[in-house]
Amino acid sequence: MSPADVTTLLSHLSERDLAILQSVSAHRLLSTAQLRRLHFGQGHSSLPAAAGATMRVLTRLEDKNLVVRLGRRIGGVRAGSSGITWQLGATGERLIRTMEGKRYRRRLVEPGATFAAHTLATAELAVILRELARANILELTALEAEPTCWRSFAGPSGGLEWLKPDLFAVTVSGEYEDHWYFEADLATEHPTVVVRKAKVYQRYAATGAHQARHGLFPAVTWVVPSVARQRALSAALSRDTAIQPGLFQVVTLAGFRHLVTSGVPDPPSVPVPTPTQLLEQEGGSH
């Protein structure tokens, strides 16, 4: 896409149109409801009015091949237009890539159900953070989605390793600045997989790279869909003696807002067994 093509296309787009494209590019997938909350939260008399305006704008962008809708809806047909998932269309991808000076072309294919669900779950955390910032409940000074938030580092043996968080954020509440690595968990992986990733975080923390630049290491947080999953992951992390206590936390999506605004996670409604209790339980099961 030539500079003249970009100029011509931009002349037909509003600031909000461009912001929508940038949001979809950053998060790869966004639902209609998420786009409404991000870009149509003000200036409408009611939620249906905002929803209608959102669909009109997205349909117009779709007609220009700037965005495309996925074939599968979140929540099925009953979800209506709010359940439609959007990604960049070919023209939108070329426009954003040209504006950002990127040469690598992102392949635009229909993603699988698992990938889409996880991508939207991660995007939901970002949307919540932006809503809290818009409401002046906190200040959001940095927000990086994949793959921008990935970090490479030299492992203990000297080989190259990659830490791949789902989301990185820096928030400010009062006098406190908090750094976060978030993992959007959908309870689709065995807890041992989570423990293995926690150890990658520990190896990255051991390099001191983030601490050297910022004076602290981010709070690593898994955001899970249920208290049962919260208990399972918390227990798995507590059980492994190689896991550094206090570096990781697990919260439900319902407790996510409380965590990022207060810095304190809500405890599971049912106490998580201590490592000693877990050993006693395992011993009694034989």
The CATH topology annotation of the largest domain reads as: Trna Endonuclease, Chain: A, domain 1
Please state the average pLDDT score. Answer: 88
Name of the CATH first level of the largest domain = Alpha Beta
Task: Please bin the fraction of helical residues.
Answer: 40-55%
Number of helices: 11
What is the second-level CATH architecture of the largest domain?
Answer: 3-Layer(aba) Sandwich
Number of strands: 10
Could you explain the architecture of this structure?
This protein is an alpha+beta fold and 286 residues long. It has eleven helices and ten strands. It folds into two domains: 109 residues, Arc Repressor Mutant, subunit A; 169 residues, Trna Endonuclease, Chain: A, domain 1. The strands form three sheets. The chain has a five-stranded mixed sheet, sandwiched between helices. Helix 9 links the parallel strand 9 and strand 10. Helix 7 crosses helix 9. The longest helix has 22 residues. It is globular, with a radius of gyration of 21 Å. The C terminus is likely disordered.
